[in-house]
Amino acid sequence: MSLLEIDNLSLTIGDTQILKDMELSVAPGEVMGLVGESGSGKSMTALTVMRLLPHAARATGRVTFDGIDILAATEDQMCALRGDDIGMVFQEPMTALNPVKTIGEQVAEGIRWHTKATRAAAEERARKMLDRVGLPQARFPMSRYPHELSGGQRQRVVIAIACALKPKLLIADEPTTALDVVLQAQILDLLRDLVAESRMGLLLISHDLAVVTEMADRITILRRGEVMEAGDTARTLSEQLHPYTRQLAQASMHVPARASTHDASQSKPLLQVESVTRDYPGRRTSLFKRAASIRAVDNVSLSMQPGQSVALVGRSGCGKSTLARMILALDKPSSGTIRFRGEAVTGKSEAELKPARRDMQVVFQDPYGSFDPRQKVEKLVAEPLHVLDKKPTRAERREMVAHALHEVGLDQRDMDKYPHEFSGGQRQRLSIARAIITRPKLVVADEPVSALDVSIRAQILDLFAELNQKLGIAYLFITHDLTVARAITDEVLVMHDGRIVERGKTSEVLDHPHSEAARALVAAAPDLHRAIARRMQEQG
Amino acid sequence: MTLHIDIPEETLSGILAKAFRNTAFVTGFVITVLILAMAVISYVWTPYDVTKLVIADKTQGSSLAHWFGTDHFGRDILSMIMVGARNSIAVALVAVGIGMGVGVPLGAFAAARGGLVDEALMRVNDLVFAFPALLSAIMITAIFGPGAVNAIIAIGIFNIPVFARVARAGALAIWPREFILAARAAGKSGTQISIEHVLPNIATLLLVQGTIQFALGILAEAGLSYLGLGAQPPMPSWGRMLFDAQTRMVVAPWMAIFPGMAIVITVLGLNLLGDGIADILDPRSRRQR
């Protein structure tokens, strides 16, 4: 007897069909993985089960939870279910908690509401739950506020809230996407333990095939609102009968073809970072006193050759983005020098930086936030042309934009559109077009593919590799994702707590990590091959 | 996956269609257009000449000949309200212009520079803001003499800190965005980024604030001319008409009612317009409707 049974579910919002004849079931104690790319209707499925759909949505079909017809239930019945029998964990731990309430209050809130327990009793249960998710009393008293916790700790609080009343079903919508790999592994372990302890059903929604393979007993693959394939995880992924399943699996393991890896024996380095340190002043504790300053980057040195592709990997908060900003001269080091083509960029005025800016460009993580929504593509992509000594005429400018768009695989007619008319992957192509329009020597890419779907991500990685070959651009990839590092870089630098703790050839470092930080990253990184192999082994 | 509910930038026709479904906007828009039309028509035609005194017709109530009655000099009130609209609108409009012209660059500059410059500018701003606007306007007109031009300057100066604050707050929300970082990485200066990226993104905010300040400007102008510090006779103005009516309230109430209504309706219309624009352009309220 299934706990959750979705039959023939169709969902429309306005005139748009979101789900079509969706089927899915979760048994008690079972982990069901729901996989699909963005826009495939994964989150909408979760919201349907919770009946938290937007007003314009119309659902038809049958959703039964524990004998209750969800689509026909009254709002009162749903309120009793939500947070009690069905718990939900959201993707973004930063926004899923109320910033003005303590973590204790937030966990106790649901307990008091559903069990009518007294404040003291509810708080005691909340305390136990926080202990259970790994936030012990000594270090995390209930009076802590969300902003005092890190991302991983906040996600633990969210899980504590969802599991406080021992729900029969837990829905986790991309619970680890906003976290780095080491935290991801910890949170997944926690979820797995909670499921085993109380025979809870878990509906795990993710775009990451490797994560789902590691966690789920059964898997449902969704594409554009339709179930493509469903079944036992190990069998589905090892046989890969459905073409879309195969496509997804291949995209997750995609390694772009790179003709020649770069040899690093050239004489003149392109970029030299010499014992750079960056301190942030501590918070002002009183009018005259400040807390000790925080060292984000600590005595880092590195050098890059022209055309070389280097990955800077590390957990979130290790200082890799700060280092990147200093290399791009968007932030000033507290001490140390950064040289680009032998010339120092530190301490120069914006006018003196122009020649360096021309040869140094950036691609950001978020393809949605990195474009001004009110300007057309032509202007956005042409933005770096501003550093050229000779201003191009309008016709020349259009010509250059058209060329850059062509190089990243977009149509030149796209230049008269606004950024919102493009998909996430296309926007990342625009981002790359903007970065290469001045023919730079170095492109710094800060998590350039982590916000993209696997198939799009494979295409963007291919594009990066192709441009590296064709234009000889050197890359500095900043990432916490080791598969990206493995796919397109020659060298890896592992950063931990502001220092570079390990460096070397990509394959050597990732296969035989020496430092503890590197070992932790490698061990935690989800790997589809490994996960499938383990699943097969378990089943014999 | 996150729900990338991407609020599409709307096409002009889409915004217009939405605008005409919004009651507040339509009402405000119609009132504003009527008042503006009244002011424009007054240049070419008014029922009577407002400078000609006809003592025989003095203090008459509403009639077919004089819809809104006449004042104590026998002038037609409707004609005076029409001509007075000119004055009110001109003063308020130019004052908003001064406020925007100075305040917005100031606020954008403060946001772009940050640090001490920002702090210093905003504290001076607070200082100007702390003076009761009308009182200082009286001071300015007292020093430089009464008249429409001085009223404009006085009201304009007190619009500056309002726009500076709104512009700075809006700009501060835009500056940490990634596309600004991208523009900086492309080597653009703070001024250039402010003009190209920040201002277009806070334009709607400023538009809404502009309509509200416009309404407040009309009120301030009426206040100043009521005190005899605005437009000088024989140029009719709404505030002045109220002052003249004050002593005759019992015998000729229409002398106060109609100019008073003109002020109330205009301010109401502009506020509705501002509300409507804010509703239409704000994605949050858009989702609820």
Describe the structure using short key phrases.
heterodimer; A: 540 residues; alpha/beta; Rossmann fold; six-stranded mixed sheet; 19 helices; 20 strands; B: 289 residues; mainly alpha; MetI-like fold; 11 helices; 73% helix; elongated; disordered N terminus; disordered C terminus
Contiguous low-pLDDT stretches of chain A (5 residues minimum) are none
Secondary-structure element series of chain B: HHHHHHHHHHH
Described by strand count, sense and barrel closure, the largest sheet of chain A is: 6 strands, mixed
Structural class of chain B: mainly alpha
Q: How big is the Rg of chain A?
A: 25 Å
Describe the protein.
- The complex is a heterodimer of chains A (540) and B (289).
- Chain A has helices spanning 42-50, 75-81, 103-115, 119-132, 151-163, 181-198, 209-215, 233-239, 243-252, 320-327, 350-358, 377-381, 394-407, 424-436, 454-471, 482-488, 506-511, 516-524, 528-539; strands at residues 4-13, 16-26, 31-36, 57-65, 68-69, 86-89, 169-173, 201-206, 218-223, 226-232, 271-280, 294-304, 309-313, 335-340, 343-344, 360-363, 442-446, 474-479, 491-496, 499-505.
- Chain A is of the alpha/beta class and 540 residues long.
- In chain A, strands 6-7-8-3-9-10 form a 6-stranded mixed beta sheet, sandwiched between helices.
- Chain A is globular, with a radius of gyration of 25 Å.
- The model of chain A has no long low-confidence stretch (mean pLDDT 87).
- Chain B has a single domain (19-288), classed as MetI-like (MetI-like fold, Orthogonal Bundle).
- Chain B contains 11 helices and no strands.
- Chain A binds chain B through residues 37-38, 42-43, 91-92, 173-174, 177, 205, 207, 328, 330, 350, 353-354, 357-358, 360-362, 364-366, 368-375, 380, 383-384, 386-387, 418, 420, 424, 431, 434, and chain B through 1-4, 6, 8-9, 177-179, 181-189, 192, 196-197, 200-201.
- Chain B: Its main location: membrane.
- Chain B: Keywords: Cell membrane, Membrane, Transmembrane, Transmembrane helix, Transport.
- Chain B: This is ABC transporter permease.
- Chain B: It is found in: Cell membrane.
